[in-house]
Structure formats: structure tokens, C-alpha cells
Design a protein that fits this description.
The chain is an alpha+beta fold. It is 38% helix and 24% strand. It contains 5 helices and 8 strands, in the order E-H-E-H-H-E-H-H-E-E-E-E-E. Strands 2-3-1-4 form a 4-stranded antiparallel sheet, with helices on one face. A two-stranded antiparallel sheet has the order 5-6. Helix 1 packs antiparallel against helix 5. The longest helix is centred in the N-terminal third of the chain and has 22 residues. The termini are close together. This is EthD domain-containing protein.
Length: 144
């Protein structure tokens, strides 16, 4: 069996622009930015784009769990996840003429970029829709 492709996941951990309320930020990100970004990203070869909304009332639900295991709750307002074959795919998207005209100004409106953090890695899914996946003969399908 061939090893499964390990697509890269680039995660941007963002704080909202402090001039926006939590409600204004969440609404704009979902209702304005997502429709605008989706076509641009797909056209430029991005495999996946996910918005992970973490307004204070939701992320604080993890406080008890975090305290129990000796952790802290991550303070970010938003996580953006891109699935790509390689990092150059995202660079290609930012080279698109639409980026500086439409995307970048909207990002500057929404986010406090000076505080953004980034991660890059790959995803191995082993439980999906409540079922075990990608385990073949007791081994990970990603390493076979």
C-alpha cells in the first residue's frame, strides 16, 4: 500500500483588530471575508481553507479543562488553516493581483497582524465521523 500524501497545514493564529467588537469581527470574517477569500484561494491551488472562531465566551469553556491538566487557554480570537501541497502554494496566492487590492486590505481591517503566530505541519486523521480511519492491519496508513 502506498503511503498517504501528507498535505501541509499552515495555521495562522490571529488576534482581532482591537477596534472591532467580538461580534463585529466574527460577522465580518464569516459573512464578508470567507466568500471573498474562498474563490481567490481555490483559484490559486489552495486545497483547504478553514476558519476556526474562538470568541471569548467559547474559548473560556476550556478554562476548567486547562486548569485540570496544568495548561492555559490559548488567547487567540481566530485560527486560519490552509491545506496545501507545499508552502509555495500560499506564496503563489499572495502574488495574485487580487491579493493587494482586495484581500490584504480586508485582512488589515480584521486582524492585529503584529501579534500573529504561524505553524506549519501535516495532519494524520485517525478518527473521522466517529469511525477509525487510516489504520490498516494495526498500522498507520501514513507510514506504510
Amino acid at each position: 500500500m502506498a503511503t498517504k500524501e501528507k498535505l501541509l497545514r499552515l495555521t495562522l493564529m490571529q488576534y482581532k483588530n482591537p477596534s472591532l467588537s467580538d461580534e463585529e469581527f466574527q460577522k465580518h470574517w464569516s459573512e464578508h471575508h470567507a466568500p471573498m477569500a474562498s474563490g481567490w484561494l481555490a483559484r490559486n491551488g489552495i486545497i483547504g481553507y478553514t476558519q476556526y472562531h474562538t470568541p471569548p465566551e467559547k474559548r473560556n469553556l476550556a478554562s476548567s479543562l486547562a486548569e485540570t491538566v496544568g495548561a492555559t487557554v490559548a488567547p487567540f480570537d481566530a485560527y486560519i488553516e490552509f491545506m496545501v501541497h507545499n508552502v509555495e502554494d500560499l506564496w503563489k496566492a499572495t502574488s495574485d493581483p487580487e491579493y493587494p487590492v482586495k484581500m490584504q486590505p480586508d485582512e488589515q481591517y480584521m486582524f492585529d497582524h503584529g501579534k500573529m503566530q504561524v505553524t506549519v505541519g501535516w495532519v494524520e486523521v485517525y478518527v473521522q465521523d466517529g469511525k477509525v480511519v487510516n489504520i490498516v492491519d494495526g498500522k498507520s496508513a501514513f507510514t506504510q
